[in-house]
Amino acid sequence: MAQSPLRALVNILSNAVDGIEGVYEKNGATFPNLDAPYTPSPLEHDPQVMGLTAVLLGAAFQLMMTVGTPIENITTTYTCQMYMTASLRYVVETSIADVLKEGDPKGVHVDEIAQKINAKDPALIARVLRYMASRHCFREVSPNVFAHNKLSSVLVKTKSFAEIQADPLSQYDGMTASAVVGHTSDEGFKSASHLSEWLQDPTSAPHAFGAAFGVPDMWQWFEQPGNELRRRRFATVMKAIGAGGYPDRIFTEAIDWKALPESATVVDVGGNTGSVSLAIAKAHPHLNLVVQDLPQVIDSLTKPFWSENSPEYVSNGKIKFQPHDFFTPNPTKNVDVFFMRMILHDWSKEKSVEILTHLRAAAQPSTKLVVFDHIILHACPDPLMPPENVPNAPWPMLANLGYGIGGITTVFDIHMLNLFGGQERTVAEFTELGKLTGWKLEKAIPGPTGTIVYSAV
């Protein structure tokens, strides 16, 4: 009898677990316990572990969808996800995660939590935390007593609870998940409630965010009175993105940097802090790098970042900072490589064409353009993707591994659509952008963030 999809998924899960545990055992480590607070491990970025994790996540979610009834999956698992978002916003804005961190590690009763955050009804706190604990964020260690676990511990802010109370405006300073959760569950969530209406009439506003708040873009909204905390929180989100979270090898091995001459100029377009430039500079110190961004970004983020992390590159002239708006002609000429990280996904096709056209006008015939952006993989086989650049999806899994890869990149895609009218792109869409702007796609490699390499034509 042929193997059932159910049994095949179970076998995929078993094999993936064997592989992950094998890597950890080989390195003298044990896989982190869900019930313990999160401690970063370098093995998280091990290529084998990352690949197996994507398969495991995709198979586990597909198994859940296979076993659960359609009504339950649609109405409870999907439609009601909004309550997890709302609950996350509540525990972040009230700093409940920080109260638990400073309380008894064995658990804190909701009465004590309520007293700390000045809440009137401890029972409401219990209901929210129990909802979250039932989804493996927090632990209910005894009735109405809650403690951190692996997931909830990343909601802790860098400041103490007393410091948060004394200066709420700065509570998201420091790079933690709380800023990302706060931003997404606040302005992102409010915008999403307008997404359906906007999709049905995209001419009604520039994007769902514009429909929700009545503004042309998020940047103008941040400048409105009353949005000071949101503006500062979003700056922290951008710093966190600039600081990484992706393995340096994605950037340092994107092309053959060593083949470039000592005189080579590499321009980081819209570079924010320039953290990717720093990773490239450390791996390939012969390169001359230029970080470009808006004047206020250069002054407030880029220069302080380099002064703190690698002032020697500034003093020896291997790194330069250049105020520049990428919707205007690029002032740097004779460039060997332009690169952009997480830029094009903020913008529509029309705006992305404008950006790439300016870069092509400044390029030499030999110039390369490297784009680091998520690559959307179809949920079915894609004849445009070379076999070596797509995940090995065992039957009966989706071609993009479902939740393991496609589920993540498509979240970013809809989030960009929601906030900016932007998008993550398929290989075909990246190819089209190149054809419209004088760039030929050489290769597109999916990964934690995709690598798209163009040559000038």
TrEMBL record:
The keyword Lipid biosynthesis does not apply. GO terms for molecular function: O-methyltransferase activity. InterPro entries: COMT-like, COMT_C, COMT_dimerisation, SAM-dependent_MTases_sf, WH-like_DNA-bd_sf, WH_DNA-bd_sf. SUPFAM superfamilies: S-adenosyl-L-methionine-dependent methyltransferases, Winged helix' DNA-binding domain. Residues 194-376 form the O-methyltransferase C-terminal domain. GO terms for biological process: methylation. Keywords: Methyltransferase, S-adenosyl-L-methionine, Transferase. Pfam families: Dimerisation, Methyltransf_2. It comes from the Eukaryota. Residues 79-157 form the O-methyltransferase dimerisation domain. This is S-adenosyl-L-methionine-dependent methyltransferase.
